[in-house]
Each structure stands twice: as structure tokens, then as C-alpha cells.
Amino acid sequence: MIETGTRVPRQRKPLRLIAAEPDDVPIVSAALQDAVAQLRDVQWDRRARRFTIAANRFRWEDGKSGPGWRVRAALDIGSVLSVKSSKVKQDAPGAVVSILAIVFETGDAPGGAIRIELSGGGSIRVAVECVDLLLADVSEPWRASGRPDHGGSDA
Fold it and tell me: What is the pTM assigned to this prediction?
């Protein structure tokens, strides 16, 4: 038996976003705000030149009421040249990080860096030849235990 209010909104399909231009990155960032991941789910494949994060994404697109929904999602960054991190516990694969924002830093066009800002002041800087991001939901949504709260107003 399904409890009232536990059904996933029917109009919502799995999210699939492609960012190929710097102006596309803020859209991916908004979709991943407050996503949580274990560090073991953050991978860099040097040979394939790909950087990936598997995370539990909060579905902001479902509206502002109720506790909301989370879904497993994968972020894939292509055309990677190098990866550097700051204030990230690389020796703790079970550590949980929360994504605050993803920002494109312009470099020699079309290249630059994708900076992933994490809670606690950590960050990951992914140098890229060009903007090449794919974000895809990869599971069915589940009811979130609560809605992320940044302590600000919605005004």
C-alpha cells in the first residue's frame, strides 16, 4: 500500500542535461545543488580523460513544498586535462561531501576549468579543453528525509 504523498510526481521524467557552453554550466550547477556523494564515488579516469561523480541529487525541479525527493545521478565531465583538489579528505573514501555549486572558470577558449565547490570549504578543480558535461538521473526517485535549508528566505 502506498501512503498518501509518497508518490513521485508523474509529470517528472529523469533529468538529462548536457552542457557544451560556459553559459550551460549554471543550469547543471542548479540541478546538483545540495547533492551528496561519498568520495569513493568521485573518479578520474586519466586514460579516458573523464571525471565522474555519482551523487544523490535533490530534485529541486519538483517544487518548494514538502520534504522533496532525491535521485541517484551521475555527472560526467569530458575532455579533462587535470584534476586538483583543495581541503578534500582523499584518504577517507567513505567521507560524504555536499555539492554547493559548479562554476566554469574561463581559460584559453574554449578551455578553462570546472570548479566544484563543496561544503566545508573544499573544492575540486577540473581543467578541461572545453565545456563537456553530462548530468543524468540513473535511478528512481525516493522521498528525501528533509529539504535542504540554507537559512535564507525565498524572497
Answer: 0.87
**Closest among 39, 20, 14 to 98, alpha carbons compared:** 39
Q: What is the pLDDT of residues 52-101, one digit of tens each?
A: 999 999 999 988 777 799 999 999 999 999 999 999 988 888 999 999 99
Host H or E run for residue 28: helix 25-32
Which residues, 6 or more positions from 99, have their beta carbon under 8 angstroms from its beta carbon?
Answer: 32, 33, 34, 35, 36, 37, 53, 55, 116, 117, 118
Query: 3-state class of 125 per DSSP?
Result: strand
Pull the grid cell for residue 10: 508523474
DSSP secondary structure of 54-92: EEEEE-GGG-SSSS-EEEEEEEEE-SEEEEEEES--TT-
DSSP class of residue 33 equals T
